[in-house]
Amino acid sequence: MDFRFGERFDEWKKIQSKNCRIVIGARSAVFAPLSNIGIIIIDEEHDDSYKSETVPKYDAKEVADYLAFQNDIPFVLGSATPDIKTYYEALNGKIQLLTLKERVSKSGLPNIEIVDMREELATGNKTVFSRKLYYAMKEAIKNKEQIMLFLNRRGYSTFVMCRDCGYVVKCEDCDVSMTYHMDENRLICHYCGRAKNVMTVCPACGKKNIRYFGSGTQKIEMEIKKYFPEASVVRMDVDTTRVKNGHEKILSKFRDEKIDILLGTQMISKGHDFSNVTLVGILAADSSINIGDYRANEKTYELLTQMSGRAGRGDKKGTAIIQTYMPDEFSIEAAKEQNYTKFYNTEINLREKLNYPPFCDIIISVISGKKEEIVKSEANRLYELLHTSFHAYMPVPAPISKINGEYRWRILIKEIANEEILSEFYEKISSFRKDQNSEIKVSVDVNPNNML
Questions:
Q1: Domains in the chain, number
Q2: CB atoms closer than 10 angstroms to residue 227
Q3: In a domain, 13, yes or no
């Protein structure tokens, strides 16, 4: 039974009436009403989507672990790029480590090459395609082989700026730059959805030197059509998959080899198995490194390794070309070598020195509201309540300090979040909420996936 499609109630009743023996689904499937569970398997266990970021907040892996303990059954976590915490626990004997030495299909791993885009620029190549990737794409198209291109930014341009005064068009309700979408010819905020018309005159200095910077998937799609007119291309991102069964329609056409080039964001990076894909191009490998999150290196390694792994899954040898301005970053080097152990050893040493998970837990309290002074005041009041008992840092504006018209301040705590610590923490949060200002909201998350 597949929890992702069809009417959930019907699926639920089938499970409850014992008409199916296997339940496959997303994180909510962990609550399926199975009466005699024999095994729980979580594939791609490193994926952030197993943790719910909205109320009720829960981690499906933790729920599954509890169910396995209650029912005394095996609990399997599978991944080619394990979560750092999971691997740490395996190496320290908390869970058993089982290693697969080769692909199931017996096909070899792809050849991975790194291109330094600084050198491309220095030699006059200002396009989004390095020379190596361009000629590799030409060769694959000539041989009637398929290509997957990855860029983790949708839209046409990532921000719009006045070149005279430096003004950047930002969302009025969120502290983020707006993205230009050519299909709609509008500027759109990817956090709250606010849209506005494209401007030709700078509202700050009155001049007309408005320019579009950065490349999103829409722009890359146009560049592909310009440089590879002989090839068919489809773009797969949030904008092109809004319609019902949008994902399946695109993937089915690609699987049937009716599309030469599949361009997409994270949604194409994992779990897909196309035997005719011989080339993968990763266009901005360093875009996830400087995101202000202690897991940035881990996320970068995961993305590059998972995306590279889409190449050469059939009889033909695969190649992945990684384009970056930061070729010496250890996460990128380790991904090139497909060496998880090398990456893990470097990353775990950094985490230990800086006291980040798995050597502690991170608890984040976000205080939000329409009036910044009230938000700041309440954040300071909550800090006074917490810092005497916990290793709490002073409240500061969140990295994205405003979303959907609400200002956001956060308090970060580093502790080993055992049952006793969490119980005391939530007691203090409950005490604070009894007399908190009605104009603010308090959100709490333990080991959040998103630190922004």
A1: 3
A2: 14
A3: yes
Q: Phi/psi at 325 (nearest 5 deg)?
A: -95, 0
Q: What whole-number percentage of the chain has pLDDT above 70?
A: 96
Q: What is the strand order of the sheet 396-403 is part of?
A: 396-403, 406-415, 361-369, 440-446
Measure the CA–CA gap between 335 and 338, rounded to whole angstroms.
5
> Please, what is the angle between helix 372-386 and helix 419-434, to 10°?
140
Beta bridge partners of 442: 367
Residue 439 to residue 433: CA distance in whole angstroms: 12
249: in domain = yes
The whole domain housing 430 covers 361-446
- Identify whether residues 341 and 371 lie together within a single domain: no
Q: Are residues 135 and 269 in the same domain?
A: yes
Nearest C-alpha neighbor of 220 from the set 133, 151, 120: 151
Which of the residue ranges 77-91, 203-217, 255-269, 273-287 has the most confident prediction, judged by mean pLDDT?
77-91
Q: Which residue has the higher pLDDT, 16 or 87?
A: 87
Task: State the virtual CA torsion across 37, 41, 47, 52 in degrees, nearest 10.
Answer: 0
Terminal-to-terminal C-alpha distance of the chain: 36
pLDDT the model gives residue 2:
46
Whether 195 is in a domain gets the answer no
For residue range 240-256, what is the model confidence (pLDDT) as tens digits?
787 777 788 888 999 99
Q: Six-digit token pair at 334?
A: 């380790």
Max Cα-Cα span within the chain: 70
396/394 Cα distance (integer angstroms): 6
Q: Is residue 177 part of a domain?
A: no
Task: Check if the beta carbon of residue 269 is closer than 8 Å to that of residue 303.
Answer: yes
- The bridge status of strand 406-415 relative to strand 261-264 is unpaired
Shared domain check, 420 and 332: no
Count of Cβ atoms closer than 10 Å to residue 340 Cβ: 19
Secondary structure in 3-state letters for 76-136 = EEECCCCCHHHHHHHHCCCCCCCCCCCCCCCCCCCEEEEEEHHHHHHCCCCCCCCHHHHHH
Whose tokens are 């080769």? That residue is 102
| CATH code assigned at 388 | 3.30.70.600
Given a contact cutoff of 8 angstroms between Cβ atoms, the answer to whether 143 and 228 are in contact is no
Tens digits of per-residue pLDDT, 293-312? Answer: 889 999 999 999 999 999 98
